Every structure is written in C-alpha cells, then in structure tokens.
Amino acid sequence: MNIVYLVFGKELLNHKQAVFSILTLFPQEDIFEKIIVITDFPEYYKHLINPKLVIEKIDSDILKDWKGINNYIFRTKIKALELVANKWSANSLLYLDSDTFVFNKLNVIKHQLDQGGNIMHVNEGALCNTKSKTKRSIWNQLRGNNYQGILIDERATMWNAGVIGISKFAMKKELQQVLNLCDNLCDEPIKLRLLEQLSFSLVLNKDFKLIPANNIIGHYWGNKLEWNSLINDFFIKSYLTKETLVEEVDRVKKMNLKETPVFVKTSSTSVRLKNIIDKLFVKTKKQFILNSDDEL
To answer: CATH number of 2-219: 3.90.76.10, 3.40.50.300, 3.90.550.10, 3.10.290.10?
Structure first.
C-alpha cells in the first residue's frame, strides 16, 4: 500500500497540514510501502527524512494540463492518482487530503485493499435525500442520466473524498473511469464543486460496496479553525525547542488525537461570523491608528 498526498500552491497552511498528517503516519511505517507527496513546493518537505518518503515534483504546466479543458481544480486529484498508479502499479494506493490525520491502526485499511475492497472516508448519504443545497442541485440536474454505464438514480450516494483507497487489482481501470465520468459531468451545465467526489463515489461503489475509513482516519474539513491553531502551535514549539524529526514523531504518538477538535464540527455560519469579526477588528484597529496619528 502506497499513501499519496497532492499538495500544491503557495498557501503555506496546506503544506503545514500535510506535514502534520505525514507525522501521524510515521509511527506505522511498517504497514505501508511508500508515502508519495506530489507537490510544486518540495522544499517544504525536506526535513521529513525517511527512506519511505518520495517527493514527486510537479509544476504549473502539469497542473494546468491536469485541470483539463474545463479548468476544474479537483480534476488534479484524479490525475495525481493516475500518475501514482502508472508509476507504482504493484501496490494499492491510499490518498489522503492534507487536512487529515491517522488515529487508529492502518493495517485494517491495508487488509481491506489487499482483499480487493475500495475505501472512502465516510458515506454522506444518497443524493435524493440530501439536505445540502449543492448536492440537491446536482441531484436535480443529473437524476435519470447515464454516464459511463452508471445510472444516476435513488441509489446514487455521495462519499467524502478526503480519503480514497483503491485496490491494486482494478486500479488503473477504475481511475480511468473516474476521470471519464468526471469529464462527462464537467461538460454538463452544472456547478463544478463536488463532481470529482461524486465521480469517485459512483465508480468505486459500483462493483463492490465502499468501506468507510472514518474510524481510522480523521478529516477536519469542518473544523479547520481549531485544527490550524493546534498544528501551528505544534510547529512553533518544534522550532523553538529545535526538535528533531524523531522527537516530533514521538510527540505526535503521545497526543490523544481522538480527543482533538475534529469531532466537534464548526458550522459554516460560525466561520463566516468569525471572518466578519476579524475583518471588523482589523478595520477598527487601522482607524484607531490613523486617529492617533492625527492627534499627534
């Protein structure tokens, strides 16, 4: 089993999340073959010295090509996994978003992949019953249509794509079908958001039932505020105390990750409210400084 990350762009926070996620993997390095980081900023991963870590450098031209004619950013995830499948075809793959961490034994996932099963993070429910506006829009526009031999009907289910495990036995074939399906959906007059996730969900759940990974891998997409603060503090302490990689991994092993804020989802309303308050504070602070200068 190879573990794969795709992290690109200048946003340092995404790379910091990925490094932390990798640290949570190192205590179980006997279970996987390689960690493959596909990135346009390989320098951010230099201190992760480990014989199982592989940095696959990409550039803006590759990313542009991976986005395709519809310039769909999440199509890059499919192409990155295609690259891994072509280069390291002997092993199943486990893709992780940067905002993930491992808090349980990975051998369960490896066993499932070795048996031919596919994995995604968690079942988010049938499209026809969704309360999400985005998913409801997708359902209303795609219901009854057939793509790549897959009918969008009441059985169509969305799974979270923060974790994707694909067994080596049909890896290349399934990834090609995911890519074709995603391109078909992108050609429709519909918002592009979640179409890559839907493509993985439909294809990987077609022949065998998908297996959830949320009891082994955490995905804090709904609570990044607290997690980013936790990760920032982790690396500040590491820098100030000049920790080695071994010491960082040891500290991660001692953390009770099950008790971290991932299991308390921050609502989108709370996030928007915090952003408004932060902007208002900055604006007020600037005005205060300007007024103070006038008085002086």
So the answer is: 3.90.550.10
